[in-house]
Structures are given as structure tokens and as C-alpha cells.
Amino acid sequence: METLLILLAIILFVAAIGVFIMAVRRSREPKQPAARQDPLKFGTMPTFGPRQLGPGAIVSYGGVDYVVRGSVTLREGPFVWWEHLLEGGTEPTWFSVEEDEGRLELAMWVRRKDLALQPGGEHVVDGTTFHETEHGRASYTTEGTTGLPAGGDMDYVDYADTGETAFLGFERWAPDMPWEVSFGKSVSPGELTVYPAPPATA
Predict the structure, then answer these.
(1) Is 111 in contact with 191 (CB distance < 8 Å)?
(2) Domains of the chain by residue range
(3) Cα-based distances in Å from 156 to 24, 29, 139, 169, 180
């Protein structure tokens, strides 16, 4: 019995020495650095689409990085389009996104409080003549900060110049409210860099 105990003690002693030697060798081996991840990788870039935008997204345009403060989703029958409130420039800017026959129509808008205009007929603004292209009534919902209610109905009348690169927009967010007039400029997807918003949390 004593011989068995001595033999077991020797085996345990040898095993302990082996574990110690392996631990020392591993500590001397150079550690592999952890792989670094792209902190801006939210998905496949640079794919651009309207659903990438929302509060918290970054839109880089014309050397300015804008933050999306809030978004408005508008619906009229089967048609859906979006307006995003951007902050980062000298004045609040709205960025509109619309899909028309599979093609994105993008525009940057600024309010023109200096224009006392009403929809109807042609308008000449800053030397450019605008003609009506579309009008209607749409329902809307909002998220983030927009200055608008959570939802409701609105009226709109859209104008464009001859080349449809400059726009004049009239929007009324309630029947008893005055028309808001905005000036818009067409933008191509290649002029933008978009860092999508983080996914919404419950």
C-alpha cells in the first residue's frame, strides 16, 4: 500500500512539473493581436438607399457632415417618400428621398421665409421660372426631432424649373396653417457619403 502511495505521489509530482514547464513556454510565445473591426461598418457599403437613413445617421455632402435629427415618412396611395431634417450647416436643411420607377430622386431643401408666395400659376424665384409639376395630400408619420406632430395629413404642391434640377415646394401641415415655402436642389447619390443610423432599439 505504501509503495502504491509513493508511486502515485511521484506521478503527480512529474505531472505538476510538466504543467509548469508548458505554462512557462506558452507565456514566452508571442501573442497574436486580436483582429480589428471597422467601427463604421453597419452593413454593405457604399450601398445607398432611403431605408439607411433615420435619426442618428450621418450624411456627408459638400464638405459638411450633417446629422439626421428626425425623419418624416409620407404616403399617398401606393407612393412613399421621406424627408430628413439635417443639422450641421449654417441653417436647418431638409433632405428628401423618393423612389420613382426604381430610380432615386434626391434633393436638398432650405426654407424660404422671405418668399410670400401661394401655390398657383408660375413663380419666378432668384431669376428662375418654376412651373407646377405635382400636387396632392399625403399622410405622414415622424420619428426623432422634426418640429411636427407624431402623425397626420398634409398638403403639398411641387414646382420645378425647366431642367428639373431646382425645385420650389409648398407644404401645409394642417388646413389652418400657412403654406411653408422651400427651395430645393437636385442631388445625385455620388455626391453623398452616408453612414447609416444604428438599428432602432425596442
Answers:
(1) no
(2) 57-195
(3) 75, 69, 11, 7, 9
* Distance from C-alpha of 157 to C-alpha of 106, rounded to nearest angstrom: 17
Q: Is residue 181 within 8 Å of 170, Cβ to Cβ?
A: yes
| Prediction pTM value | 0.73
Q: How far is CA 141 from the centre of its chain?
A: 16
Q: DSSP strand E in the chain: where?
A: 58-61, 64-76, 79-87, 93-100, 103-111, 123-125, 128-144, 151-160, 166-172, 180-187, 192-195
Beta bridge partners of 29: none
The H or E element spanning position 18 is helix 2-28
Check if the beta carbon of residue 166 is closer than 8 Å to that of residue 160.
Answer: yes
pLDDT band at 43 (very low <50, low <70, confident <90, very high): very low
Cell numbers given for 112: 424660404
Contact 65, 88 (CB under 8 A): yes
